Amino acid sequence: MPLHAQAFEHFAGAHHLPPLTMDVRRRIDGKRNSEIFPMLFEREMGMEEILVLEEEKEGAYRQLSRGRIVLVRGALTLLTRLQAHGIGVAVATSAPLKNVVHTFAETGLGAHVTIIARGDEVPRGKPFPDVFALAAERLHVAADQCLAFEDAPIGVAAAIAAGMTCVAIATTFSAEQFEAHIPAPHAVLPDYETFLAGPGRWLLDG
């Protein structure tokens, strides 16, 4: 997310937009670009214009992030242990396809996650539950049997609306910000390593 913020700084400067404050991020992080850009520019936009802006901003992100993406602590161990226990994993993301492909290539996550549900595949983006419902459907698991990890309040709202238990990872927003949000997550942790040391400790067995 710091790399996204850096890319947005360049984008905002080029378009004379105000700085990306944490209050603005609370309202837009997790949303689809088709919803973010009209909010930022404060006007209606056609999809053609949105796609041009998306390529500008996300292209800058992909260039800035090449060789610089660092996984959240414990993420790879968690994925490895879920695989070992035969537990399915899906990504439910608002990111455009090019970003998903880029991130998987940069991090090697494609070896651990093959099921992806994208916001542009569903009628409504986060905070609506559609993308999480699609992820559960592709996992062939009832949504209320899924555990979602989210790093933005809007994403927490979407996961809970889908009927999932949701753990917030406080890498961008603080625990206090998550706990003050309605709906609040079921738990807030600093990273996946902490999850594995606590409620997910059983995954390290066997």
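the 2nd protein, sequnce then structure:
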Amino acid sequence: MTAAEASDRELILASSSLARRELLARAGLSFEVVPPSVDEGEVKRSLLAEGAGATQAAESLAELKARSVSHKRRAALVIGADQLLECEGQWFDKPADRAAALKQLESLSGKRHSLHTSICLVCDQERLWHHNVVVHLTMRPLTESFLESYLDAAGEGILATVGAYQLEGLGAQLFHKVEGDFFSVLGLPLLPLLEVLRAQGVLPR
């Protein structure tokens, strides 16, 4: 099957993440973006109170996002995704502003943390597939002067990332070691997703 002959089945990304959108677009996918109607903060607080682990929470949020869009677009294949950063038992959210980003990076400096990324594919409210990935990242010790320069250069784009870094750009300078899938750090375990989309007939084999 050629790309032109691949299924014209409707594919939706249930995410407002620019990084995820760019990953799928660069991989050649044709899709629509529909932001999900999920109160992530409330869900995280509830899951944390219930004793959920970071991977379990990311998986639950990914599925909730996909289902919230699938409810309105039942014939479509809907991709939901979520990512949680965990360091020494603490969950981190996207920083609200530069001051929060600085505080978060200072907390991660010189430490090993984990990114728990989950992806889910839903159609007509039924979960067809899900996949979880954990990547471990070790930041080098960061001086205050370096962090200030980094935040100046990186700009507000880092506020859209859970770790206040963009590994594909200047964020690479923050790290000593990355253990795991690069695409998952950016927000999606892309290769497993492409494989399941080929199985669904969305992409050519």
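The longest strand covers residues 126-139. Residues 3-199 form a domain with the Maf protein fold (CATH 3.90.950.10).
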